[in-house]
Amino acid sequence: MNTEKLQRILSRIDGRGYKAYKDLQGSYKIGIFTLHIDHVQSDPFAPPSRMRITLSQERAGFPSRLFNSPPRKRALEDYLTRAFYKECIKVAKRKGTGSSGIISIDVGGQEILERTSAKVDEREVEIRFVVGLPAAGRRILSREAETILIHILPEMVSRSLLYRNLPQGELERFVYLCEDQEYLRAKLKEKALVAFVANGSILPRESGISDRPLTGKGVKRFSSPPELEVEFDLPNNGKIRGMGIPQGITLIVGGGYHGKSTLLKAIERGVYNHIPSDGREFVITVEDAVKIRAEDGRFVTHVDISPFISNLPGGVDTTNFSTQNASGSTSQAANIMEALESGTSLLLMDEDTCATNFMIRDGRMQKLVSKECEPITPFIDRIKDLYEKHRVSTILVLGGSGDYFEVANRVLMLREYEVHDVTERAKEIAKELTNYRETENTTPFEGIKRRYISPSSFSLGPRDKIKAKGLHNIIVGRSNIDLSFVEQIVDSSQTNAIAFIIQFLTKNLNTRTTLDKAIDNVLNLIRTKGLEAISPHRGHPGALALPRKYEILAALSRYRGIKLA
To answer: 231: buried, middle or exposed (CB in 10 Å: 19+, 13-18, 0-12)?
Structure first.
């Protein structure tokens, strides 16, 4: 099919009912590219129509050096998505009812994620986007549709998908920055580090609802304390220096509003690569780090929380614990055990979002409430076990409990956003001021329990659907999975991908297997065949971005219909 064929169809259906737009489905050669109309929306108020553009590399002209490794390929695809999105913003105007006239693409925020919006290889460039096909009421506006498909799209392609028309220096810096971030993350373990914060980084954000960097004269750039300063030699940007946080137990202390949580938030997001000028381009964290918090009311099923909670009244078995409505302490225990189940090597915690009775029991409280009457073994008495027996490090923000000084490997103090290594002074204080509390870890912290998932977990009715709703919710049949407190999901397209993974499991989980193995199998498939492999859609796979293993496990663990043992 070609341009003339597309024009004839549009002319024939002009003024007809909206469903006649279905006649457009197919592929059309338009100038230097091919337009694929994969799915046409059912009416103007439905989600916009899914389309793709494919363009040969002979025409696009991107040098292979820009996509000859996974980090470079992911960065180039992200850059082209953002370039196409800028063109969408310039040209997209509502031309009728509903979403009529809208052109849009799934674009990321400050993080660079693997997503389905673009695909680049040696043969071609492909961009996936959506268009609101124009209508007046529910009557087709063919002339407006023709303007979009035959006139506007070619201009957008020329400005955003041809190498010669892009700012090549900017593009190459974007790609090579992503490669340097991946390189640095891979080097952390070689230096026995769990995180790195480059000198000169800008950690504060624009506001509580914006993830963009704070700007202005008063912004302080990060500077490492001398004791923790390390240097890396990056493949593209040369030598870089900053603070390396070693494996083990690290406390971040200081007064309120001095930057403790801001530093932890940057480290938390350091599991992802960031775009240029974000300020956190070289805040790099081990990729499996997990932010832990209390989560009152969450659903918990078949989790062994006995390292932290045992001897509950009524003889409740905490080695195989389930509840419809967890308390702060039991939810935090479950969150830690699920993080360990996913294979984390670093826990991140902020006391502001933790359960106080889970974190510490001081000496006075121990005297009043004896261990025989207290089922909680506080985190302070397990933190060393986690590192020494399971090689799981912890970074913990504290402002109210100096008892942790005794178990810490290092203590960092924030003073007006400046970091100081106060480990020696903290240890001196721990010796000077006698600690009257007694250690309560009376039993060893054994191996991590693997839960088994049954295929019958997803016995849904014929009309039941699985779909994401925004960043924090996934609907499975009549059940809602609430991800509000799974804090390292940064993009609604990740949530969408998790929903598709759950849908994929409903059809492909045929035997009883461990939960983490089932997730590994899906992620291995994605590594081999791309995110398209989990999409139920042909052609345009939808708006998907790659989630981490932990977030998938967290979603499944919060699904009230799941059958685990």
So the answer is: exposed
- Torsions phi, psi for 285 (to 5 deg): -125, 150
Which residue has 């939960």 as its token pair?
515
Residue 508 makes CB contacts below 8 A (sequence gap 6+) with none
- Distance (Å, rounded) from C-alpha 275 to C-alpha 108? 10
Buried-state track 497-534, b at ≥16 Cβ within 10 A, e below 16: bbbbbbbbbeeebeeebebbebbbebbebbeeebbbeb
- CA-to-CA distance for 225 and 262, rounded, in angstroms? 17
- Across-strand partners of 232? 240
Strand partners, 139: 17, 136
- Residue 39 in tokens: 């799915």
209: amino acid identity, one letter: I
List the domain boundaries for the chain: 3-166, 290-432, 452-557
72 Ramachandran zone, left/alpha/beta (phi>0; psi -120 to 50): alpha
How does pLDDT run across 209-262, given as a tens digit for each residue? Answer: 889 999 988 899 999 999 999 999 999 999 999 999 999 999 999 988 899 999
Angle at 182 between CA 179 and CA 184, to 5 degrees: 110
Q: Which long-range contacts (C-beta less than 8 Å, at least 24 apart) are formed by 488-492?
A: 488/268, 488/269, 488/271, 488/290, 488/291, 488/548, 488/550, 488/551, 489/547, 489/551, 490/109, 490/111, 490/113, 490/211, 490/269, 490/272, 491/108, 491/109, 491/111, 491/113, 491/545, 492/468, 492/543
Question: Which residue shows structure tokens 């003889």?
Answer: 315
| Nearest Cα residue to 391 out of 448, 438, 338, 307 | 448
How is 182-240 classified by DSSP, letter by letter? HHHHHHTGGGTEEEEEETT----EEETTEEEEP-STTPPPP---GGGEEEEEETTTEEE
pLDDT tens digits for range 255-296: 888 999 999 999 999 999 999 999 999 999 999 999 999 999
Distance in angstroms (rounded) separating the CA atoms of residues 363 and 369: 10
Q: Encoding tokens for residue 542?
A: 């939808």
What are the two backbone dihedrals, phi and then psi, of residue 149, each rounded to the nearest 5 degrees? -75, -35
Contacts (Cβ under 8 Å, ≥6 apart) of 497:
531, 534, 544, 545, 546, 547
Q: Using an 8 Å Cβ cutoff, are 287 and 271 in contact?
A: yes
Lowest mean pLDDT among 179-193, 433-447, 502-516: 433-447
| pLDDT score at 314 | 78
Q: What is the rounded CA–CA span in Å between residue 520 and residue 170?
A: 36
Q: Does domain 290-432 have CATH number 1.20.58?
A: no
What is the Cα–Cα distance from 29 to 324, expressed in whole angstroms? 55
Q: What are φ and ψ of residue 211, in 5° steps?
A: -100, 10
* Widest distance between CA atoms in the chain: 88
With b meaning 16 or more CB within 10 Å and e meaning fewer, what string describes 14-52? eeeebebbeebeebbebeebbbbbbbbbebbeeebbbbb
Nearest Cα to 259, choosing from 229, 291, 220, 226?
220
Of the candidates 234, 112, 110, the one whose C-alpha atom is nearest the C-alpha of residue 183 is 234
Query: How far apart, in whole angstroms, are the C-alpha atoms of residue 154 and residue 31?
Result: 7
